[in-house]
Amino acid sequence: MMYKCPKCKLPMGRAEVGAAGGIGIFKKTGKISAKWSNIHCYVCATCGYIELYAEKPDIFKVDENK
């Protein structure tokens, strides 16, 4: 998928976000368990704008019955 910078309207390139042991986002599903998603990063080479996307956004759906 091609992402365009919302500021410059130019194509954004894929980049890696890193940290020792990996980086991601999670949703707690109980006291001990959690669902995990990696992060995809895109950066504008012109202005430096960065966007982050969850690889598995569906795990963050809100249960409206709770």
TrEMBL record:
Record protein name field: DNA-binding protein
Species: Clostridium rhizosphaerae
